[in-house]
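Query structure, 180 tokens:
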């Protein structure tokens, strides 16, 4: 496997190809967001779900790279959420400032953390020193917590998007709720 890594360009690493597919799916979802919420939702959600596979593929195929880490961050924090939050700003103009503030906070905090990790010579932004913030250590060391937080964040904004086009989920007792 180590020989394969030396003969293959970093741009063609399997996890990076997954990243390119994620970007393509996200861009396609943005195209459909104003007109076809079902297609947009499927494309966007698929792009988000593929995030679970790029890191696994990087470790499995021994194709961990700085380029892959930056591509993953770019896809996770910039490409996917920016398009969705810009759309939400259009759909919910009253809350556009909140969506913009969330974008600034999310992108800047992750970008600064990644680059400070690179500058200190760490192999991964998930590798933290013993004196690092306890919450950050818990976030990056507990995969269940990390997944729950990331998935919850995405599900919240996707739900806001879908709720704009639908009446929300139907339940057994929804007939008891009177509409104003």
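Result returned for the query:
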């Amino acid at each position: 496997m180590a020989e394969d890594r030396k003969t293959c360009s970093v741009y063609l690493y399997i996890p990076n190809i997954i990243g390119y597919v994620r970007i393509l799916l996200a861009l396609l979802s943005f195209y459909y967001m104003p007109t076809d919420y079902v297609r947009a939702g499927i494309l966007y959600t698929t792009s988000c779900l593929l995030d679970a596979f790029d890191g696994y593929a990087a470790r499995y195929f021994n194709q961990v790279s700085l380029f892959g880490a930056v591509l993953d961050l770019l896809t996770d924090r910039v490409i996917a959420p920016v398009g969705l939050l810009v759309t939400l700003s259009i759909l919910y103009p009253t809350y556009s400032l909140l969506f913009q503030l969330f974008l600034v906070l999310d992108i800047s905090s992750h970008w600064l953390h990644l680059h400070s990790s690179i500058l200190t010579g760490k192999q991964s932004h998930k590798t933290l020193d013993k004196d690092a913030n306890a919450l950050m250590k818990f976030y990056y060391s507990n995969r269940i917590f990390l997944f729950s937080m990331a998935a919850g964040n995405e599900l919240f904004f996707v739900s806001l998007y879908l709720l704009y086009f639908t009446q929300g989920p139907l339940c057994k007792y929804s007939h008891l709720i009177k509409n104003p």
